[in-house]
Amino acid sequence: MSSLNTPHASPAEREERGQAARRAVPLQAHADFTPRSDRPSPVAVLEEQAGSRLPELVPVRHGRMLVSPFTYYRGAAAMMAADLKGTPTSGITVQLCGDAHLSNFGIFASPERRLLFDVNDFDETYPGPWEWDVKRLAASLVVAGRDNGFRRRDCRSVTRTAVRRYAAMMSTFAGQRNLEVWYARADIDELRARLGQQLTKMQRTNLTRTLDKARSRDSLRAFNKLTAVVDGRRVIRPDPPLVVPVADLLPDVEGQALQDRIRDLLLDYRSSLISDRSHLLDEFEVVDMARKVVGVGSVGTRCWVVLLLGRDDGDPLFLQVKEAQRSVLADHVKRVIPRPEVLNEGERVVAGQRLMQSSSDIFLGWQTAEGIDGQRRDFYVRQLWDSKGSAVVEAMVPDGMTTYAELCAATLARAHARSGDRIAIAAYLGDGKAFADAVAEFAERYADLNERDHAELVESAHAGRIPVTAGL
């Protein structure tokens, strides 16, 4: 790690590093992918993960993953991490998202209340080879495209275009000053104005609808949707098993003990915030809390939503307190880079998010807490809704997915440029064409494997080997 007292390599030296890496690992090598002979079954991996999750929610996770090859892919980051560890890499590392599929990008509000587009899921973030994120994104394009009925040539075109966009943006960042890269962001209003007539009428309509929905998704809307007044008291509305108030989850004494522990967690978490934000948090009072099911891959991990009120009943704040388990990358990147010291998994998530995102939630923080079962677990905290929005991948046509994929790829390049050697990566990629061709080939091969894994999961569900709750 460089520091103020360590001489830095010159741009020419960094460029030579990338070129030397390309000579050692040619761009065409990234097309190579053959599942290793001792590869575990996807069912075995899911069963292993279930051991650390709430058993009553594991069937919900399986049910969500069974819906399609794409929903399976969303929940199978652990499988792909194991598969990627044997693939060629340039040896240049960045802070990885760790789960950079198409649905893990989206819109959120900056502290200045501007809508930004960025990576929005960091549960698996970890230092590692930048190629892993690119390949996870590329394969998701093929998997999603096939689910949407795209022709093979359309899937390949979408993927190649996205990867070339990543290379082009990395080249742009390589030529910029450090502060320019750090301040770069995808402001949605600026993007919409710049794209202008490049979007079709339908795309402009869909974008407007998405932005309007995102702007309306804040704590006040969550308050109106998720709460009710019962016996004169504001409480979180139950929707079991997806939303279960703590008061309904456990008997009186145990329920109160759990609430006390969550309150203590929030009190201690304040120390991970900068002083002005902890002061703002102190202006709110905890009113109610509930367990909430979120996402696909995260289902079964412990996740709480906490309702707080400020000046009155019309001044709500919803915080999400989410368990941070060990990254699925942790066991695999050690073959590529020295393993970093991670003292707290919640801090790992927060540090990765702050490093990769152009702007982060003002209440983003972390803490460790002991559960009523005596087990200590790590958590990170953020606002539940903060003008969040995302595209409906299942409704995309080839042109729309191409535009969206380019935006995701450019965003990923910016995130990698903040944490890694952007000059070396750009020099390694060159014009990006050969790398895009190779990764498109990899993505097709991996999509084939993903379909086989999904079919195995479906077969196991039909045979009763894994428990499944569908439709949630």
What is the general shape? Answer: globular
* End-to-end C-alpha gap: 45 Å
Mean pLDDT: 91
Instruction: Tell me roughly what share of residues is in helical segments.
Output: 40-55%
The biggest beta sheet is recorded as: 6 strands, antiparallel
Domains (count)? 2
The amount of beta strand, in percent, is 5-15%
Radius of gyration: 22 Å
Helix and strand content put the structural class at alpha+beta
User: For the largest beta sheet, what order do the strands appear in spatially?
Assistant: 8-9-10-11-13-12
| pLDDT < 50 runs, ≥5 residues | none
Number of helices: 19
- Tally of DSSP β-strands: 13
Written account of the structure:
The strands form four sheets. The protein has a six-stranded antiparallel beta sheet, with helices on both faces. The chain is of the alpha+beta class. The radius of gyration is 22 Å and the shape is globular. It has helices spanning 11-24, 42-50, 58-66, 69-75, 77-84, 130-147, 152-174, 178-183, 188-195, 201-216, 219-226, 246-249, 252-269, 275-281, 330-333, 345-356, 398-419, 422-429, 433-462, and strands at residues 93-96, 105-109, 115-119, 126-129, 186-187, 227-230, 233-236, 243-245, 285-292, 303-309, 316-323, 365-370, 376-383. The chain folds into two domains: 11-214 and 392-462, no CATH class; 219-383, no CATH class. The longest helix has 30 residues, at 433-462.
